[in-house]
Amino acid sequence: MSSHRHRVTPLRALKGLVLLGFAVFCVVPLVWLLLAPTKTDAELVSGATMSFGSFDQLAAAARHLMDYNDGVLVQWAWNSVLYAVGSLVLSVGSSVLAGYALAVTHLPGRRLLLVLTLVGMLVPPTALVLPLFLEINAVQLTNTALSVILPAAFYPFGTYLAFIYFSTSMPVELLEAGRLDGLSEAGLFWHVARPLATPLMGLLAFFSFVANWNNYFLPYVMLSEEAKYNLPVGLGAVISGTPALNPANGGSFLPITRPEVALAGLIIVLPIAVVFVFCQRYLVRGILSGATKG
Amino acid sequence: MSSRRRGTWTGLLFVLPYIVLLVAFGLGPAAYAVYTSFVVSAPTGDALGLDNYAATLGDFRFWPAAANVALFLAIWLPIMVVGVLALALLLHDRPSRFSGVMRLVYFLPGAVTGSAGILLWYCMLEPSISPFGPALRAMGFERGSDVFADSNLVLIFAGIAFITGAGQWIVIMYGAMQNIPEDVLEAAALDGAGPIRTAIFVKLPLVSKYVLYMVILSLAAGLQLFVEPQLIYGITKTAGSPWWSLNQFGYALAFQTGNFGGAATISLILLVLSCVAAMLFITRTDFFSTEVDR
Q1: Using a CB-CB distance cutoff of 8 angstroms, which residues of chain A are in contact with residue B282?
Q2: How many CB pairs (< 8 A) connect A and B?
Q3: For chain B, which has fewer Cβ within 10 Å, the N-terminal or C-terminal residue?
Q4: Cβ neighbours of residue B182 closer than 8 Å, sequence gap 6 or more
Q5: What is the pLDDT along chain A (294 residues), one digit of tens a residue?
């Protein structure tokens, strides 16, 4: 049996080759992104593509990036945190409360609300960005933090996940016992349901944070002032507004070249990627639990 | 009875924040876009009723943009279905530590999305700095402008979307295959089915609804294509245009010519397509449920 396991047949070799081949396409670009900020722009072109430059060069790239427009990058990072955390608090709070109520009480219009939630879950948020701009513009809130935070607080995915979670893993007996102990309905949620839902809230918080941290289209459309950008929109402005990535489009007096831009990309990606690697299992379970029947 | 009524009132209070968000940032913008599309005139004349629709559909930029998006979907969706299923089946054929590592590796590119993703993949496709430079040159691409030619854009966007999106779906399909009962697979083996026949006739039918889920979500997301063509045009100034995709066209209408009515019509066309796909999926499959058996 074990000799069978280790026999290398042409078919098995081909299979391994396909799997490893795709892995190369996944890993090489990420390693390149890690290495790029350690080199000068000239070294990126002339040197070995997958080599390490020097820490001095990395520090220089960081300095150039910090000097860009009087340190606007720090402002963008701060905005990113503010927008993502603001939306996170509102979205997780509202969706956990709603999911709980939909699961344990008999509300009028409950089915309609759930169907609307499902539609909201399947329609990508980008589909509503231009209509949202028209609406927010009509109430004159564009170019404010609220114009980015509030629309992203609508979180149908979270509400549906919370509904499924409370429906399937919240013992009815616990609620009954709580009622007998004289807890109010709000007290039941706070003292019985909320502690049980801690893993759910962690999952929803992560999903919400990642989506909003990476959000491009909504802030791009809502925000007109550079100082209000988040990191992805700021990076987008740098790579499409300067010849940094495409020196063929003319020279620049700015020391913002490809290593600096790569470093900016890393700053956006690293916080997410680290959590991504550690939470992969939970993330997948979260996506899967959208379906009630495995 | 009185406790149930009390529960209903508290329940309503609990869903209220979510309903407010749903109305303000889900239904509201959609309704306002309908209003805008019928009532708000283009700055050039008095467009009312269906005039905005006629003007948008008759615009020289509309059909090329629609064709670009349709071609992108026609290439990307089959690649997703075949690629994701093939890789997941190969990984599931013989679960091992190797297959676990591969699943994590395939997941990683998904962390680099939006503007950071475009930055990364632009560099990967620029022969002078890309680690894949020799391969690109072997295929006849000497300079970045050879790669970023109009005729290649659809393929480039489909490739990027596949590499960044495949990982999470591979993990999901793999998870779904793990749920296939052991005795079903044993019965197939007893019947003399080899790994390939088992994959095609046993595993595939059992994960088909996850494939449908992936297709619906990908279709809805792909219709909204915006960041990729917008930034690639911004970087190269030659590949694509500011109205290469439908969402770009809508954005250009709103922000270059102040034609909000026209922008609203584009958004609504995309929104209706997404909603129809979502409703079909919700009503024709048992993937989601609004009633959960306790």
Answers
A1: 115, 118-119, 122
A2: 319
A3: N
A4: none
A5: 444 555 678 888 888 899 999 999 999 999 999 999 999 988 888 888 888 989 999 999 999 998 888 889 999 999 999 999 999 999 999 999 999 999 988 888 888 999 999 889 888 888 899 999 999 999 999 999 999 999 999 999 999 989 988 888 788 888 888 889 888 888 989 998 888 888 788 888 888 888 899 899 999 999 999 999 999 999 999 888 888 888 777 666 778 889 999 999 999 988 887 777 776 666 666 555 544 333
Interface of A with B in 73-132 (CB under 8 A): 90, 93-95, 97-98, 100-108, 110-111, 113-124, 126-128, 130-132
**Domain-wise residue ranges, chain A:** 2-70+242-288, 72-222
Distance of alpha carbon A97 from its chain centroid, rounded? 22
CA distances from A271 to A73, A218, A294, B133, B238 (A): 16, 21, 32, 29, 33
Whether complex ipTM tops 0.85: yes
User: What CATH architecture is A72-222?
Assistant: Orthogonal Bundle (1.10)
Yes or no, beta carbons of A186 and B120 under 8 Å apart: no
Domain that holds residue B53: 15-61+246-274
With beta carbons less than 8 A apart as the criterion, state whether A234 and A76 touch: yes
